[in-house]
Amino acid sequence: CLTFPNQRRDMDHFYYTSKFYGPTDSPDKDLWVNIEQMDMGRVHGILSNTHRQTLRVNLSFDVPFYGHSLREIHVATGGFIYTGDVIHKMLTATQYIAPLMANFDLSISQNSTVIYCDNGTALVVQWDRVYLQDVSHVGSFTFQAALYKDGRITFAYKEVPIDISKIKSVNHPVKVGLSDAFVVLHKIEQLPNVRRRTIYEYHRVELLKSKISNVTAVEMLPLPTCLQFSSCETCVTAQIGFNCSWCSRLQRYTLGSLVVYNYNNITHISLLSHHQTHQHTLIHKKSFYQHPH
Fold first, then answer.
1. What does each C-alpha distance from 183 to 186, 200, 206, 281 come to in angstroms?
2. Could you read off the pLDDT of 95-122 as tens digits, one per residue?
């Protein structure tokens, strides 16, 4: 929950610990980045004049996310960053970094922009003076997400004209937080050359929407994960809160019914049995987000 100097406390989300900061906190806790003064800041023309659109951004450094590394992300007009490798229409379902996922339409105002900057140690994305399509009369929103080389993630809010817990999600999901998942390919007996992709969401960080307002910020610090261990000794002596064991055949840590391993420099997560995850099957879905080439 959002508390102020003498009451602030951390929230443990298993993979991350989050801290909320308010307008009365000390200046050194100001997480807002003045992106306009950064030489490498870029305003993207397509995103700054459209609705439900994404932009692929190649990073100059590795961003740790849930223990694995990101080198490419997709920035969406809807106030979030998509982190998955498989591009599909339902990007709002999972695999996201969302300072404020909502139905923002940047074509409403010529002043609405999406700005991003990669300085080699951090990627900052700013949704600047953006309006909700359904209730544009409430005013504009300005907020940021920053991804750091050490795995830290921050959300900062400059202008939030309404209580975001009251934003309706009829036409677009409304989320604040993180989500990660893995993809499983299924064979279809009737169509031997076709594979069905199913995304399994294994964890989600849901931050309280009611705690987000003007001049607030959230800092999420990564906790140790299985992927950082590459030997049996470091695995069995680690005390990181996971119910894991070492798999000698794969030479990797295993997390319950999930196996995490590396083959040909590609990280794979295999589902060995039923697991408590959210399932998103990517077939016969309504078109949602567009991806310019």
1. 10, 6, 21, 10
2. 999 999 999 999 999 999 999 999 999 9
CA distance 218 to 197: 33
On whether the CB atoms of residues 18 and 220 are closer than 8 A, the answer is yes
Q: Quick check: helix, strand or coil at residue 265?
A: coil
Report the percent of the chain where pLDDT is more than 90: 48
In whole angstroms, give the CA distance from residue 221 to residue 19.
8
**Host H or E run for residue 233:** helix 232-237
Q: What's the CA gap between 257 and 239, in Å, rounded?
A: 19
* Overall average pLDDT of the 161-171 stretch: 93
Round to whole Å and give the CA distance between 289 and 25. 38
The b/e string for 132-141 (b: 16+ C-beta within 10 A; e otherwise) is bbeeeeeebb
Torsion angle of alpha carbons 123, 128, 132, 137, nearest 10°? 160
Q: Where are the domains of the chain?
A: 11-225
The tokens for 169 are 């999600």
Bridge partner list, 245: 254
Q: Which is more confidently placed, 193 or 13?
A: 193
The pLDDT, as a whole number, for residue 270 is 38
Beta strands 122-130 and 68-76, pairing class: unpaired
Per residue in 261-274, pLDDT (tens digit) is: 333 333 334 333 33
3-class secondary structure, 28: helix
